[in-house]
């Protein structure tokens, strides 16, 4: 009787979720995001691990991560740091290599993505057997907090940091991707799907996130969506700049011409 | 086929059709009324698309969900997290 119970429990919990957290100067946010992850995963009962990929942050992010490892255990908080800032794509590759889960969750470590949505992502994936589940700020009751009117307006027409309405509109017209939020980086992937995509994507930065979804569509992967709320930077400085607009447009046109 | 090629193909088909009708290249002897309608079509369609874009983006800006509650909930959880972590021995 006891063995039947434990074997069915083992079967139901075969899935393990690896959360990749690339960090750079997130000393203040890291403990909070880890605490939230532990809270929501703990409540949901899913098996998980958190992989912190720190790119040599000068503010002591790695030391804080080590403390968190001490508190929550090395099986929950894994540290896979790198010497210097090497970019998001390579951070994912690095993280995947050390991930023991069969699903990978990517998200921002700056509290703009809230772990409370993760059980919803997991549910959605199970419901539809999706290869990718993407958090969207642009449909359902997804949305944004913390953008003033100026930012909303700018972001509508040219900015792209979180792919404002205008940039999103342009992207939808040119690429018709079949997903409502392209530069969103709060996503759940099947591990082998993420490996395939990271292998094929060549862009850098935010365009990289767009390319992932576009290529996923190309390769015929199924994409589910979950509305999320995006709360803009709690601590730290936003990395939005003027020439990112230019590189967004360049990236968009490149995707337009090559996919 | 890339999106760029799709667009180029689409545009050339439309331009060809427009050219054929407007300049009567195939000698179809299309009634004058039709020609007068087709002739300004490209400009007209561009203007319509422009208006649609502005209206859509404008509408979406206005209705962009402002997640007031999400922000407040997060602030409350941050306080809770800090207390709990201090208890567990984290030195901030």
Give the topology, please.
The complex is a heterodimer of chains A (259) and B (92).
Chain A: H1 2-12, E1 16-23, H2 29-44, E2 47-54, H3 61-72, E3 77-79, H4 88-98, E4 103-106, H5 118-128, E5 132-136, E6 143-145, H6 149-157, H7 165-175, E7 187-190, H8 191-200, H9 205-218, E8 223-227, E9 229-231, H10 242-258
Parallel strand pairs in A: 1-2, 1-4, 2-3, 5-8, 6-9
Antiparallel strand pairs in A: 4-7, 5-7
Helix pairs in contact in A: 2-3, 4-8, 6-7, 9-10
Chain B: H1 3-23, H2 32-38, H3 41-62, H4 68-87
The description of the largest β-sheet of chain B is:
none
Helix content of chain B: over 70%
Number of helical stretches of at least 4 residues of chain B: 4
- What are the low-pLDDT stretches of chain A, counting only 5+ consecutive residues below 50? 5-11, 153-163, 234-238
Radius of gyration of chain A: 18 Å
Order of helices and strands of chain B: HHHH
| Low-pLDDT stretches of chain B | none
- The shape of chain B is elongated
As a percent range, the share of strand residues of chain B is: under 5%
> What is the residue-averaged pLDDT of chain A?
80
Largest interface: A-B, 41 and 29 residues
Give the mean pLDDT of chain B. 84
Helix content of chain A: 40-55%
Note the beta-strand portion of chain A: 15-25%
Distance between the termini of chain A: 55 Å
- Note the main sheet of chain A: 7 strands, mixed
Please write the string of helix (H) and strand (E) elements of chain A: HEHEHEHEHEEHHEHHEEH
Give the structural class of chain A: alpha/beta
Keywords (chain B): Coiled coil, Endoplasmic reticulum, Membrane, Transmembrane, Transmembrane helix
Family (chain B): Belongs to the DPM3 family.
GO cellular component, one term (chain B): endoplasmic reticulum membrane
Subcellular location (chain B): Endoplasmic reticulum membrane
């Amino acid at each position: 009787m006891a063995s039947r119970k434990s074997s069915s429990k083992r079967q139901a919990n075969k899935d393990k979720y690896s959360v990749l957290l690339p960090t750079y100067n997130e000393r203040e946010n890291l403990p909070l995001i880890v605490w939230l992850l532990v809270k929501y995963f703990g409540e949901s009962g899913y098996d998980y691990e958190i992989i912190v990929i720190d790119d040599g942050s000068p503010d002591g992010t790695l030391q804080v991560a080590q403390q968190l490892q001490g508190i929550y255990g090395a099986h929950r908080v894994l540290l896979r740091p790198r010497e210097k800032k090497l970019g998001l794509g390579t951070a994912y590759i690095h993280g995947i290599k050390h991930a023991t889960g069969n699903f990978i969750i990517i998200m921002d470590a700056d509290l703009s993505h809230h772990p409370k949505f993760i059980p919803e992502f997991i549910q959605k994936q199970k419901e539809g057997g999706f290869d990718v589940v993407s958090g969207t700020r642009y449909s359902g009751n997804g949305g944004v907090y913390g953008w003033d009117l100026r930012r909303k307006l700018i972001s509508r027409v040219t900015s792209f940091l979180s792919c404002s309405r205008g940039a999103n509109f342009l992207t939808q017209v040119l690429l018709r991707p079949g997903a409502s939020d392209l530069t969103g980086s709060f996503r759940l992937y099947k591990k082998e799907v993420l490996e395939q995509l990271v292998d094929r994507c060549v862009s850098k930065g935010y365009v990289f996130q767009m390319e992932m979804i576009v290529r996923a569509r190309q390769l015929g992967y199924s994409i589910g969506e979950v509305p999320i709320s995006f709360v803009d930077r709690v601590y730290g400085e936003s990395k939005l700049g003027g020439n990112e607009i230019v590189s967004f447009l360049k990236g968009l046109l490149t995707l337009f011409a090559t996919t | 086929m890339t999106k760029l090629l799709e667009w180029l193909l689409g545009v050339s088909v439309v331009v060809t059709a427009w050219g054929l009708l407007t300049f009567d290249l195939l000698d179809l002897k299309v009634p004058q009324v039709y020609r007068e309608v087709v002739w300004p079509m490209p400009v007209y369609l561009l203007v319509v698309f422009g208006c649609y874009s502005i209206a859509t983006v404008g509408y979406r800006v206005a209705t962009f969900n402002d997640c007031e509650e999400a922000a407040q909930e997060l602030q409350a959880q941050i306080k809770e997290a800090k207390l709990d972590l201090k208890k567990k021995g984290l030195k901030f």
